[in-house]
Write a structure and sequence with these properties.
Blueprint lengths: L1 H13 L4 E3 L10 E7 L13 E8 L3 H15 L3 E4 L5 E11 L8 E12 L2
Parallel strand pairs: 1-2
Antiparallel strand pairs: 2-3, 3-6, 4-5, 5-6
Length: 122
Amino acid sequence: MIEVLEIFKGQLDALDVESEFQEWTQDVKYPYWVYDYIEEPMKTEDFQQRPTLILTGFTKGAALELEKLKEKIKQHFRGGVRVKTDKGSAVVIAYSRGGFIPTGDKDLKKIEIYLEAKKWSE
C-alpha cells in the first residue's frame, strides 16, 4: 500500500496540489488537501490490491476554486495513470467520482474525490 500512496503523492505534487496523508500538519493555507485510502480484500491469486484513494479538499474561498482543482485532477486521472515501480510491480490510478460535502460552517467548503487504484505484483 505504501507504494500506491507514494505514487499518488508524486502525481499530486506534479499537479501542484498541496496535500498530506491523513491530516494537514502545516500552517493552514487554503486550499489544502488530505488523502487517505480504503483497502479492499484481495480476492485473486495474483495478489492484486484494489484500494480506493480518497482526496479531500478544503477552502474558505469560493467553492468554484475546489471545483476547478477537481476538474484538473479528473482530467489527469480520467484514463488511468500507469506507473511501473522499481520493485517490478505496476500501479494504475483512475478517477472515479467526486462531490461537495456539507461542513456545517458557512465559510468552509469541502470536496471529496474518489480514485480507484490497482496494484499488481510480479
